[in-house]
């Protein structure tokens, strides 16, 4: 019943407890990092894009509400396909948000950048739904 066991990472013969799977912590960490790397890479890359988009909007919108162009955002590396949520007003306007910073597409590739703030448990938007005619 004394079956030889080998490390799942390096293949070395394992001595010790019957349920031991790795010869040391380095092999255990390496095995688990490799096992999870592909799914973590995708999530990490998406989160990096979202954080970059948020940072760009924060940089271009220090006052909480300002206009800019699509081109300015693209030059800074903004990726319009990535956002955390969409807020639609009663009039049908759609704001795309990366966390608390968002934009509304206007005419001629212009964008309105906005910031929403959370105070207590109530979400207060610092823009009005009918601000653009």
Structure at a glance:
The chain contains two helices and six strands.
Task: Characterize the structure shown.
With 133 residues, the chain is α+β, with helices and mostly antiparallel strands. It has 2 helices and 6 strands, in the order αβαβββββ. Strands 1, 2, 3, 4, 5 and 6 form a 6-stranded antiparallel sheet that branches. The longest helix is centred in the N-terminal third of the chain and has 36 residues, at 25-60. It starts with 24 loop residues before the first helix and ends in an 8-residue tail after the last strand. Residues 121-133 have low confidence and may be disordered.
* Gyration radius over CA: 25 Å
Terminal residue distance: 81 Å
Secondary-structure element order, N to C: HEHEEEEE
From the spread of the alpha carbons, the general shape counts as rod-shaped
Structural class: alpha+beta
The total strand number stands at: 6
Query: How confident overall, as mean pLDDT?
Result: 86
Which sheet architecture does the biggest sheet show?
6 strands, antiparallel
Proportion of residues in extended strands: 15-25%
Fraction of residues in H or I helices:
25-40%
Oligomer: single chain
Give the uncertain stretches in residue-range form. 121-133
Count every helix, treating DSSP H or I runs of 4 or more residues as helices. 2
């Amino acid at each position: 019943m004394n079956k030889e066991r080998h490390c799942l990472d390096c293949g070395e013969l394992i001595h010790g407890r019957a349920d031991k799977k790795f010869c040391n912590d380095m092999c255990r960490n390496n095995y688990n990092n490799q096992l999870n790397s592909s799914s973590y890479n995708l999530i990490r890359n998406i989160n990096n894009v979202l954080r970059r988009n948020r940072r760009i909007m924060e940089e271009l919108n220090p006052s909480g509400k300002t206009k800019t162009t699509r081109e300015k955002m693209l030059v800074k590396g903004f990726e319009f396909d990535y956002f955390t949520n969409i807020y639609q007003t009663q009039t049908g306007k759609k704001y795309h948000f990366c966390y608390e910073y968002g934009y509304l597409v206007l005419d001629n590739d212009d964008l309105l950048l906005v910031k929403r703030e959370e105070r207590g448990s109530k979400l207060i938007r610092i823009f009005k739904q009918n601000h653009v005619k």
